[in-house]
């Protein structure tokens, strides 16, 4: 009860505070609503669904946002892509294909939780350069992770999610941030950032990106499963008989069924379309709708199956609302305004400290963002120019900010659309993401800005 | 199989037909996709979900619609209002308030299916003048109808929907079209139409609208439950012991529980806000979000409850897609173009025949519309001006077209957002709406254009 009161009080104080000079008063109001909504989730006052719904109601009734603005997230293509990816993933599981792929994975790497985690990370790293949409990539990886968990008897519906599934899900979720940092083409906005720094004489392309990213990303990827094993451990770490069980199970299943074959075909089609989407201008979300359409057309998945997936609706509601608010905050110029204020504040610091503070604040800012793209567009330019003005090492700063734009995805539940899919599974709670996601982001920050920075400094 | 082929063939023929002179080729392509999607539902080739998803995919991949246009329905406020109304209705049922209201109704009118049907219609008629949004009104009525059905042991999950529920649902769904026709203020677009004919010297206001509407609407409302009893009969028509059962059941339940009281309070708040929304500029959809927020805040309804409501997601997907397509068809000028063509074609008919043909075609056109508002905006002006040019009785034509804009809501599943809620219940299938909804629309057309027209002619 005192928590509700505290959040409420904070909201009132922020609301009636004098608006920072030069800032749009509407931007300040929206910031108040947004930050109070998020804090009410962090401090477990409200569920993320309730916090979002109340945030929307407040924003509309105080005329901070127009109804159209407030509702706009529901038709955002990233939000719809997530909903479709959710349904397609469920169809993959239902057809039995998910389990088959999981069993194949377990057969090879299934002796320990760590082995499975590494094999999932590796799969992600290898397919990432061909996937400009990390959201679409999560749509591919999620059903496999889900099935691996299920095949090992770890299921949130039976209360056994902590047995293995939670650990694997979290590893894979955080891993997508790393695989995105590894390749220039693994996230839609990486090339945009690279283009933005060319004005500062920094030339970033596919080859020098992967070279610069390789060392810190490999270190982070090698440590990630092990760190999570310590702070967020699965109940079973070793499954010595899992490989032979998987082998036997695969034998029992025999050849692929009609539904498995069809699903595999659709899956391959989607993977191809998604990885070529940038090149040929194929709409990623319409592709996902096509995938669902084909699954329904072939009867592999039915409207009756979707009727059970209310979770997708819950996910859609909170994510669409937070998405719209964060985008409006960006459109109203809130983010860049504060970015400029900060760059002024750090003038008096020593150069190395200013460098670290700049990157750290850039990362912290992701608490306010629902979209990595919007984050980069709003702040990357501001922070690079502040760094250049202060005479910092611009190439290093550019890489550190660009890598951060990827690895900080795990800082909040809404920090990346990928997370949304993993959380919807029930294996990971919203509060756990705030806790361990924040911790991992800090951990990645340290690796990239020590080992990574030294490596970048050495090779360039 | 031959049906799939037939629909496919029709689509190909329409697609490659020469575009009617003066029409935007994109409008013709979209019309082809839209009409083929709808026909594939009418002829049971595809489910309405699959037809919509495939329609969206075709529209985007042929570049008939941009992805943004195709997805826009998901953030439309009417679509979101329906989704929220769906969830609030479920919360009303869960709290027990729905059943209590249903038992009170059964206690008084529950001796026969007909008695219940009339009492539901009457409730609707009485609250309608205060509800400028028929969609919001369906949100109020639906949970009561649902609970009446459940209290009588009629439940689609047990295969007993035809026992009583289907009949009551259909009566109430068609009844909303009649209650909307009864009052100038019972549907958002009625006053718009009234304003549009003032240029022709026809002065329509609250009092003469209800006077003109009273006779045909009363006749239609009196006949509706009886007609449906013949063509779409419930399995049980008489429930002589229902009243005493309801009385006993109410006694057993005792006073209202905490959750019932809270739900009732929220319900009254919503009804008040919805009925005053026009007056004070309160956003109807944000009000619905507020309703859901309060239900979640008080714990009457929980995120876990919503996780079971995948049906709301299915409904949202197909309705949002059809909504967006129909609106785009309107924006591209398809509707008014064809309206003008038709008005030229009927020049040679006798005046009374031209009058009836004009109204009839206006009604038929509703197969293409998902929004009654868009229908009126697109065609009402065209048809009135065509009638005036032909020297028809403009006052009568104005009323006949305005009444039609309300009663034809039941012609297709997507003909009004209200229907969507009733269909989502599982008591009424999409195919049944095409069949019996079409029949009822024809029936209403006859009543309004005989009895109604004579009455309007006599009083003015």
Question: How would the blueprint of this fold be written?
Answer:
The structure is a homodimer of 460-residue chains.
Chain A: H1 2-16, H2 25-42, H3 48-61, H4 67-71, H5 77-95, H6 97-109, H7 113-127, H8 134-151, H9 165-182, H10 190-197, H11 206-231, H12 242-253, H13 258-280, H14 284-297, H15 303-306, H16 310-331, H17 334-345, H18 351-364, H19 372-389, H20 394-407, H21 417-424, H22 430-459
Biggest β-sheet of chain A, characterized? none
Helix percent of chain A reads over 70%
Average pLDDT value of chain A? 91
Distance between the termini of chain A: 55 Å
Task: Report the largest inter-chain contact.
Answer: A-B, 43 and 44 residues
Element pattern of chain A in H and E: HHHHHHHHHHHHHHHHHHHHHH
Approximately how much beta-strand content do the residues of chain A carry?
under 5%
Number-wise, the strands of chain A total 0
Sum up the overall morphology of chain A in one term: globular
Q: Assembly type of the shown chains?
A: homodimer
Poorly predicted tracts of residues of chain A? none
Classification by helices and strands of chain A: mainly alpha
* Helical stretch tally of chain A: 22
Give Rg of chain A in angstroms: 22 Å
Membrane topology (chains A, B): Multi-pass membrane protein
Subcellular location (chains A, B): Membrane
Protein name (chains A, B): Inner membrane protein ybhI
Main location (chains A, B): membrane
